[in-house]
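sry for the spam today, last one i promise. struct tokens for design, 492 residues
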């Protein structure tokens, strides 16, 4: 008998294997646009158990973990999904919590389509596994189980660390160092923990009880959270270092808004996105009069910018009663930095997009209120430093848009308070703190990460920087004799 394999049988097995690949990625249910634009309830309602199990079954459990390599915090993605496939949700949660203390947040707001899901083998077929939605499902399942489960902590090292800021980067470092046996204190300037997660992202995209649940988990690890404490006013950075703390991590974010610098930006009813979202989210203007912090809202709103913060602002405005909301963006839709699903949600809710236009002035009604916006049409030229084509004004194309409220969403920079009170801390001309690849600053025993270093990025990238810094800080704290070389001074 010949040992030669029948090529037809081989091809049939190959075809059978291909047929087993499920390309039917499950969409997540969400509120109807006409309903949701009148409330601040979460838009995406989440997978049912059956949907989560079906989506988990699509994972190919690849030996080469490309998806994990695409995750900034290196979550063991095949392992947590594999545990789900077996019905072991406790194990899936345990796997997640070994790499992230914020699964309920990451599963909602991280751009998985650009990170882990973009590396999924099924992405080649246009249907990657919905990794973020599965992460959210596990985190939400944990909430139904009652008490927060705390992993075993390492023995106490006797070392104390101060974390300045309780946003995603600060929470990550706090949990990582607490798990390794260090005593951690977080200082938060606001009256609640969570940082930008509380003031910057709307309730309909990230419910605040989810954020507080994650903050409580970090506190359950033994982390002490001190609220209403501003470093640079209540205490200087040197006072922390010369006091009880062996090391400090700066995670104060970037809360200083940028403006266009055009005539009329000081008119009434012109908000920075930072102020607008803080009043709406943290101060709960959307619950007025139960909370006495209203946001005055006109009928015709213009939001300047094309990022996620601009989408959040526009979608808040429509929910706060605006009759028409226009997004003003100087490039085309292709260049917009906002997540695709956020743009799609905004369009479904009736937000109007105006591409290739740029404001040149804001017009007054004569009583110091904004009544219009002067715009000029743009065309795309050669790529700039960002890799996107540079917008170039078209002379003679100016026109006026009637508006009575403007929200400026052009990005933010770090608050200069800490840098101005710490002369030996190197910062760039933009005010961001200079660090090496592990978050070490020019100042001894001080690390930094998140938006105070990047100037503004994603939640998960801030967490990734935090994990790197936490490892470097742990190494320093457990081997203080090892010399850690600071980065080169910032260039003028």
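last one done:
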């Amino acid at each position: 008998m010949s040992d030669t394999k029948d090529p037809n049988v081989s091809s049939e097995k190959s075809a059978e294997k291909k047929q087993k690949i499920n390309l039917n990625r499950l969409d997540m249910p969400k509120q109807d646009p006409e309903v949701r634009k009148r409330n601040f309830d979460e838009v995406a309602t989440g997978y049912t158990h059956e949907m989560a199990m079906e989506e988990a079954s699509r994972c190919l459990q690849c030996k080469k973990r490309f998806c994990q390599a695409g995750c900034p915090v290196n979550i063991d993605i095949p392992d947590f999904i594999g545990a789900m496939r077996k019905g072991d949700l406790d194990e899936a949660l345990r796997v997640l919590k070994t790499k992230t203390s914020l699964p309920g947040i990451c599963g909602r707001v991280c751009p998985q389509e650009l990170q882990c899901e973009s590396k999924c083998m099924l992405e080649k077929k246009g249907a990657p596994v919905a990794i973020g939605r599965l992460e959210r499902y596990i985190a939400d399942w944990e909430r139904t189980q009652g008490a927060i489960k705390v992993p075993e902590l390492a023995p106490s090292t006797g070392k104390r660390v101060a974390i300045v800021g309780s946003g995603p980067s600060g929470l990550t470092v706090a949990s990582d160092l607490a798990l390794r046996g260090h005593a951690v204190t977080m200082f938060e300037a606001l009256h609640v923990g969570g940082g930008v997660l509380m003031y910057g992202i709307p309730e309909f995209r990230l419910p605040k009880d989810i954020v507080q649940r994650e903050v409580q988990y970090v506190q359950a690890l033994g982390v002490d959270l001190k609220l209403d404490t501003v470093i640079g006013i209540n205490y200087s950075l040197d006072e922390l270092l010369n006091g009880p703390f062996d090391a400090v991590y700066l995670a104060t974010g970037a809360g200083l808004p940028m403006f266009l610098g055009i005539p009329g930006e000081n008119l009434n009813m012109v908000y920075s996105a930072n102020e607008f979202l803080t009043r709406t989210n943290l101060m709960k203007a959307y619950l007025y009069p139960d909370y006495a912090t209203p946001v005055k809202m006109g009928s015709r709103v213009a939001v300047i910018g094309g990022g996620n913060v601009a989408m959040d602002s526009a979608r808040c405005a429509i929910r706060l009663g605006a009759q028409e909301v226009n997004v003003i963006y100087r490039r085309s839709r292709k260049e917009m930095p906002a997540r695709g699903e956020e743009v799609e949600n905004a369009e479904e809710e009736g937000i109007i997009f105006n591409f290739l236009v740029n404001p040149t002035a804001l017009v007054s009604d004569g009583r110091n209120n904004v009544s219009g916006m002067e715009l000029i049409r743009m065309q795309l030229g050669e790529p700039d430093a960002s890799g996107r084509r540079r917008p170039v004004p078209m002379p003679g194309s100016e026109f006026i848009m009637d508006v009575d409220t403007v929200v400026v969403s052009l990005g933010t920079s770090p608050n200069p308070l800490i840098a101005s009170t710490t002369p030996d801390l190197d910062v760039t001309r933009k005010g961001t703190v200079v660090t090496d690849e592990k978050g070490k600053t020019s100042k001894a025993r001080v690390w930094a990460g998140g938006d105070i270093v990047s100037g503004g990025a994603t939640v998960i990238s801030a967490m990734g920087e935090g994990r790197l810094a936490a490892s470097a800080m742990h190494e320093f704290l457990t081997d203080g004799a090892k010399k850690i070389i600071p980065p080169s001074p910032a260039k003028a």
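Confidence is low (pLDDT under 50) at residues 9-17, 481-486, 488-492. ok im logging off now
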